[in-house]
Design a protein that fits this description.
Pfam families: Abhydrolase_1. By secondary structure, the chain is α/β, with parallel strands linked by helices. Helix content is about 40%, strand content about 15%. It is built from 12 helices and 7 strands. It has a 7-stranded mixed β-sheet with strand order 1-3-2-4-5-6-7, sandwiched between helices. The longest helix is centred in the N-terminal third of the chain and has 14 residues, at about 60-70. It starts with a strand and ends with a helix. The mean pLDDT is about 95.
């Protein structure tokens, strides 16, 4: 079961959150879109109030789940916006169901296995340590039990890929994310997105070899986040790619700069 909120009226928009968040990450963006779009905001499988499966966290499988969600809601065509891990889900969604997509947007996200993406998982080349930690079987579950909030506080406020606008995720928001991660099975389920990365690399390379995604594609980078460091991965996979910067912003764009992000999306969809 995928838990989701459906708000507004108009063309459908699917917002896919990143790790370690839930659909709550889009709380400031949704009201800015809902006056002209029907906004669908799920908790990705394994996150928040959605079911925690025993497996199937490779992004191809998750993409099929969210596409079935949109079909069940009666949306034959829709815009897709993916932040962080949500962008990793958005690519196989576009590769498998491109005819259903009105547009594709990556926000601080890229495609594992393409371009120079694997460097992001290697701290010796400037990548983040958390990829390796989250991929280790069983150890995160053991070490994070009862310490979920501390881990998230480090990720959001102290890590090198953390927020540039440090008050964008406050203590109340941290509590929301910590409760979600502390739920039974949640650490195992959400780490499953990282433990599936080797399968994702194989799948993504196969998708890319089969031909480019042709839907209009945008990459949104933040000046103090990943930026456009993963643009090359998207350019390798799609034929119609544009990009833009969000200034004075870190990795968590939907929470740091919701109005600017909403403006970028609306301008693109209505141009």
């Amino acid at each position: 079961m995928v838990e989701c909120a459906v708000v507004g009226d108009g063309p459908a928009v699917l917002l896919l959150h990143g790790w370690p968040q839930t659909g709550y990450a889009w709380r400031h963006v949704v009201p800015l879109l809902a006056d002209r779009y029907t906004v669908v905001v799920p908790d990705l499988p394994g996150f928040g109030a959605s079911s925690r499966m025993t497996g199937g966290y490779d992004k191809r499988s998750v993409a099929e789940v969210v596409h079935r969600l949109m079909t069940s809601l009666g949306f034959g065509r829709y815009h897709v916006v993916g932040h962080d891990v949500g962008g990793q889900v958005a690519y196989p969604l576009a590769a498998l169901h491109g005819d259903a997509l009105l547009s594709l947007t990556f926000v601080e996200a890229g495609i594992p296995g393409l371009g120079d993406s694997l460097a992001a998982a290697n701290p010796l080349t400037g990548g983040s340590w958390h990829f390796g930690f989250n991929m280790v079987p069983d150890l995160p579950e053991f070490l994070l039990a009862g310490r979920e909030r501390g881990y998230l506080e480090f990720m959001f406020r102290r890590d090198s890929i953390g927020l540039y606008v440090t008050d964008a995720i406050d203590d109340v928001d941290l509590d929301v994310y910590a409760r979600a991660l502390a739920a039974p099975g949640a650490v195992r389920a959400t780490m499953g997105y990282y433990r599936a990365l080797l399968q994702d690399v194989e799948d993504n390379r196969a998708f890319c070899a089969a031909g480019p995604v042709t839907v209009s594609t945008l990459v949104v980078g933040a000046r103090y986040g990943v930026g456009l460091g993963w643009l090359d991965t998207v350019e390798a996979a799609a034929s119609d790619v544009s990009s833009c910067w969000v200034e004075d912003c870190g990795h968590y764009v939907p929470e740091e700069r919701p109005a600017e992000l909403a403006g970028i999306l609306v301008e693109r969809w209505e141009s």
